[in-house]
Hints:
Helix 6 runs antiparallel to helix 15. This protein is mostly helical. The protein contains 16 helices and no strands. The chain has two domains: 61 residues, no CATH class; 214 residues, MetI-like (MetI-like fold), CATH 1.10.3720.10. The protein starts with 15 loop residues before the first helix and ends in a 6-residue tail after the last helix. The longest helix has 33 residues.
Amino acid sequence: MSNLTVRPRPAPAAPAQHSRARRGRPRRRGRLYSSHGVRTLVSPHTLTTRRGRAAYWAVLILVVVGFTLAFVFPFFWMVTGALKSPQELAQIPPGVLPESPDWGVYAEAWELLDLGLFLRNTALYAGGAWLFTLAVDVTAAYALSKLRPVLGKLVLGGMLATLMIPPMVILLPAYLTVKDLPIFHLDLLNTPWAIWLPAAANGFFIFLLKRFFDSIPRELLEAAQIDGASPWRILWSIVLPVSRPIIGVVSILSVVTAWKDFVWPLLVLPDQEKMPLSVGIASLSAQLPQNVLIAALVIASIPAIVVFFVFQRSIMAGLTAGSLKG
């Protein structure tokens, strides 16, 4: 018999894919990577411990409370400042709470500044600006999105380019335009048209509306065209009902913008009987005690705050809506 040499069989080599996977896997140094390979500051294992959870919630509460105070404290200071006497307001260091609150200062501010007149003027200007904004911006966005004119992209680019121009740069040309309206040669000063017409064309609103209209399936519009619907009928019966979230956002933003505007109404509405709320309070501020003036500012800010709290869900839904399900 011949001598047979038994040699040990070599261990099977690791598959190439496993070695490549190990080479491509990130190294976990300390607590920089979670179990899913995503880089984080704190590992999931640390959050399962008592000390980790305590530190996490402490930081979260501190950040939330800090940002809340930063935004709410100015309004709190304004409300409590109106309840203080002029001597308390001039006190150094100032007190946080009034020593003897005087709630009658709000009624005094309402009567001395004739806030009812200014509120009616402001509501008129904001309501008209809202209607003209929807009429102009919705039709412009619909034309650019669905009708697609020949120079549509150039027109949209020109509208968006206006957003890069500071408002103060076009203040004088806009004033001269309102002073002597081209072609018609009308003087629009001291009229609501001086507020309504400039507010109607807004490049940002047109951009928001167009982006939403682009997400509407074209099959819906083609089906309506086959049934014989005109472009106006399609806009009124199909596009507008579907676009209620973004129309709500544009409506709220246009009303709030017209409500809080100051510089433009100050220029085009010099007549005191036609001033909006912001301009009327500023024009009479030098003749009033400081606590009465602060009370007037509180009253002027209440409508905008109420609108925000009532329609905040619509604002968030409209800004995040960009597609249709189904």
